[in-house]
Amino acid sequence: MSNLVWEQRNYTTYVTEGTTDFAPIATVQINSSMSTNWTDSYKPVLYGFHNAQDLRSLEIFSIDILTGMVSVEKSSLIDREILSRHLITVKARNPVHAFSFVRLLIIVEDRNDHAPFFPSQNSNIHSELKIPETTAVGTLLAQV
Fold this sequence. Notes:
Oligomer: single chain
CATH superfamily of the domain at 10-109: Cadherins
Radius of gyration: 25 Å
Strand content: 25-35%
Order of helices and strands: EEEHEEEE
CATH architecture of the domain at 10-109: Sandwich
CATH class of the domain at 10-109: Mainly Beta
């Protein structure tokens, strides 16, 4: 029976809020040169998600069964404020039923969901703030 060895011991990748659907974010693969008894009879290696720390991760991401490429499936569900990291266990197996597991950590990078809006410089809205020299340190002068 073949011993399947991953190219990395663990995988870490990053995804940003607002990433588009089907965007590839990582590829997890078996290292064929380090796997024992590696011949054509042990191919193809098939990849799949085994489990996840939070089951919502399995709705958000998908994996290509033949290549191990991990992609965003439902980008609308990526929200750092709700779930900032996704820990998924990936399984690889070959036709003789040798299998191996590896962890994939996906870290969600924040995007400003509520960017401030300021009127353009050409608008008629202007404000000027005058501060007397005698103003005490820490005094609230204005609030936007």
